[in-house]
Structure formats: C-alpha cells, structure tokens
Amino acid sequence: MTTTINMLAIDLAKGSFQVCAVAADGAVLYNRVLSRTRLTTLLTEHRACVVAMEACATSHHWGRVAQEHGHEVRLVPAAYVKPFVKRQKNDRADAEAIAEAAMRPTMRFVAVKSAETQARAVAFRTHQCLVRQRTQLINALRGHLAEFGLVAPKGPASLKILENALVDQTSDLLDPVREMGAIYVEQIARLTEVINRLAAELEAASKTDEELRRLCTIPGIGPVTAGAVAAFAPDLDTFDSGRNFAAWLGLVPRQRSTGGKTRLGSVSKMGQTDIRRLLIVGASCRRHAFGVTSVIRWVVRKGGSVNRWLAALVARKPKMVAAVALANKMARMIWAMMTKKEDYRMA
Q1: Hey, is 341 helix, strand or coil?
Q2: Contact by Cβ (8 Å): 56, 14
Q3: What is the pTM of this model?
Q4: Per residue in 198-219, pLDDT tens?
Q5: Span 7-102: which CATH code?
C-alpha cells in the first residue's frame, strides 16, 4: 500500500533544494535534493498538500507558487526551526526540522506576502540603502579633508562647508585632493537627487493611499515609517491585540521569569527591525523621516505636553527609555487604528 504524502518540507537555497516528504503520521517517506526546475514541476504536478518552508527572503515567492497550485503554505520562523535540528546541521537535517516544526499544533506561522507588498519593501530598502551610501561618502570626504585641517560638523547639512572648502583657491589644498573631492561631491549630488525623488514618491503615496494617510496622523510617524509598516508588517488582523503586535516588533521586555517570580529585562529586539528602529527614532530624535517633529524632543523643549502620561514619563525616566515606551504605545496605536479603520484622535 502506497503511503500518501501529507507534507513537503523544503529547505530553500539558490540552485538546489532539499525536499523532505512526510506522511500524516510524521514518517519520512523521502528526503532528496531537487533542482529549481524540478521543484517547480513538483509543486505544479503534486496533489494539494501542506508545503512547509523556513521563512526567509525567497520563501514568499515559493509560497505564492505553491498557493497557485492549491497547496497550503506554512512559513516557519527560523528561530522556531532551530530547536528541532537533530545533531549536526545540514540540508537533510534542516528539511526534517522544518517538517517537525510545521506539524506542531501550537506553532506560529508567517503569512505569505503578496508581490505588491514585496515591491513596497524593495522601494523602502532602496531608499535606505542610498541614504547609507550617501552617509558613507560624506563621512569619507569629511575624513579626507580633516587630514588637511578642514573640519565640518556631521550630517548632510554641513556638506556645503566642504564644497566651499574645495573651491576656495586661498586654501592650501593640493589639486589632486580637489579633484578627488569633486568626485565625492558629484556622487553625493547624484545620490541626493535619487533619494529626494524616492522620498517625494513616498510622501505623495502617503497622501493618496488611505492606509498610509491614516498612519501619518499619529504624532512621530512620517511617510517613511508608514511605508515601512505597509511593506513589512503582515495583516494586522492576524494579531489578537496591540500588545502582540508590539511583541512582534520586539518592543516588549525580555523575560527571565522563573519560580513564579517575574523578571523583566530590556526590550527583546525580536521581530521586524526596520519598523522598530523607525518608531524609536520617530519618538526620540529631533526630526524623523521627512521633518516630522519628534514627540520626546517636543515635550522636553516645551516643558510639557497635552499627553499627561508622556509628560510624566519624560520627567522621571531617561529620554531613550521614554522613547522606547512611547514606541511601544505607538505600535499599539497602529494596531488599533488599522484594525478599526480609524484616524488618530488626541486623548
């Protein structure tokens, strides 16, 4: 009697994929390597079953391929797969571990992202990548000119000082230094042009897209943060509460509780890094994204706030601790507003 395959656990790679076929009782029927073409054929021709994969960059593409052919897709977070790896780590053991994890009744899975959502993520990451490259070039130019006694403050706002120093004929800069500096300035200008164009597109989208517009009504959230939430956060209806969403972002304390004694540490920093970073930056720094005034800095500068909870928190806690607490609250606001389809209302 032929045993029916109930699950295909796939350890993803670039060119070859380890596929572990599992029966309904958990028995491994086969565990073999397939090429990209053969994996596509398998998902196309195989009868509908559970397809389990470790959540990663390419798993959403293969998840959509599997769903198109009627399969049930289960994406398991990598941290939840690791405890099921037996002995040494290799592709065969990883595929079996994915199958073991996916069969657990209490396991939590990652939702498969649509192509449109991933396209938003590409736009966001492109903007962030170009900003990092521009910062790298500015720092390099500052470092080179500092060797000749020309010092400027950090940040793009001080770039004009460096440009003026390069064209100042009264300075003792050598011609090769001026030429190399001109190359830096040219590259920075090109990156700035692209960054401004991408920023303008994000800002325009925040005015026309209903979800982005709603997110931007929260103090401390601008178009960049709103775009990150839309690109990286799953459907917020999948979370039971705002606290679960904050925990997914890593904005809740790490627990080391035992014996009935509760021991809370710093934030867990688990979950989506980009949204967590932008929420904390939007709550702590002077300006965020496209000039959104920081909530914490505003409270400190004005000496008070219409939000009594925030004013009291800033008065008794360090600013960074208050910023993380406010970011946690902002995450809960995001969940409540997006699930209830309501705009932000000042309490």
Answers
A1: coil
A2: no
A3: 0.80
A4: 989 888 888 888 888 999 888 8
A5: 3.30.420.40
